[in-house]
């Protein structure tokens, strides 16, 4: 069998593995608040998130097209399949490391940094599509600040609107509503995060001359959505514990405010075809909500560790992907 075809098959397998891992790594982001407030049991929350992630993944393709063509030009990529395979191995390794330690790291940062690092290692800095790459970086950097701000605003509005309500009744009502917001959160997660694996597979197909446009084939969409849904069904309980309880003490009203805020940001990014880190957005929304509730109520030490992980993910994954590419190139 032709070596390029073998590499392309490996890319598809590892891209689906990345999507599967992304599912259980990032499941916590979508359902952490609803589990921590006991609006949903962990099992029901995970099943709900799996179903809504699957639906969301099948609904849109704009982010996948951005991944396909805006980091590097797949039509000009030499050794494209090897580059993409190195990027996937790097992103998967980083996702598993951070999952093992219960750190809500960004799968988006990991894969985007890995694609850039492997491409630079293969062809130098000139290979990057700087206009598209900078646009993606801007979305990744700006979205957490927007989520923090909107989380603060939404929670401030809730405090004014419900200040005279009975606390028990309000929390009971918000706990029921959290089922809806958790489903919405998981749906928006699928519309953005699952798109990344679709874009990577399409990049590999183009690099191997098996596909001629940046349109996402139907089988790729179904395969990536299925992998994301199955991964989500496994769950990520270590990260649920961090996101759902270690940043701040979350009540149902806080969970609803955080879910609505982050869902708005993620879906807004999907609508303009930009990838964002769902981890960054959801964690930032929780911080914003906590700040509106009580600044001292946010455990800023934990938040600082999360932010540090956000900062180091992209450069570490880029360096790791560059090294993996050089190792693969030796053997290929």
From TrEMBL:
<dbReference type="GO" id="GO:0005315">
    <property type="term" value="F:phosphate transmembrane transporter activity"/>
</dbReference>
<feature type="transmembrane region" description="Helical">
    <location>
        <begin position="252"/>
        <end position="272"/>
    </location>
</feature>
<keyword id="KW-1133">Transmembrane helix</keyword>
<dbReference type="GO" id="GO:0016020">
    <property type="term" value="C:membrane"/>
</dbReference>
<feature type="transmembrane region" description="Helical">
    <location>
        <begin position="307"/>
        <end position="328"/>
    </location>
</feature>
<dbReference type="GO" id="GO:0035435">
    <property type="term" value="P:phosphate ion transmembrane transport"/>
</dbReference>
<protein>
    <submittedName>
        <fullName>Anion permease</fullName>
    </submittedName>
</protein>
<dbReference type="Pfam" id="PF01384">
    <property type="entry name" value="PHO4"/>
</dbReference>
<feature type="transmembrane region" description="Helical">
    <location>
        <begin position="140"/>
        <end position="162"/>
    </location>
</feature>
<keyword id="KW-0472">Membrane</keyword>
<feature type="transmembrane region" description="Helical">
    <location>
        <begin position="218"/>
        <end position="240"/>
    </location>
</feature>
<feature type="transmembrane region" description="Helical">
    <location>
        <begin position="46"/>
        <end position="68"/>
    </location>
</feature>
<keyword id="KW-0812">Transmembrane</keyword>
<keyword id="KW-0813">Transport</keyword>
<feature type="transmembrane region" description="Helical">
    <location>
        <begin position="80"/>
        <end position="102"/>
    </location>
</feature>
<feature type="transmembrane region" description="Helical">
    <location>
        <begin position="108"/>
        <end position="128"/>
    </location>
</feature>
<dbReference type="InterPro" id="IPR001204">
    <property type="entry name" value="Phos_transporter"/>
</dbReference>
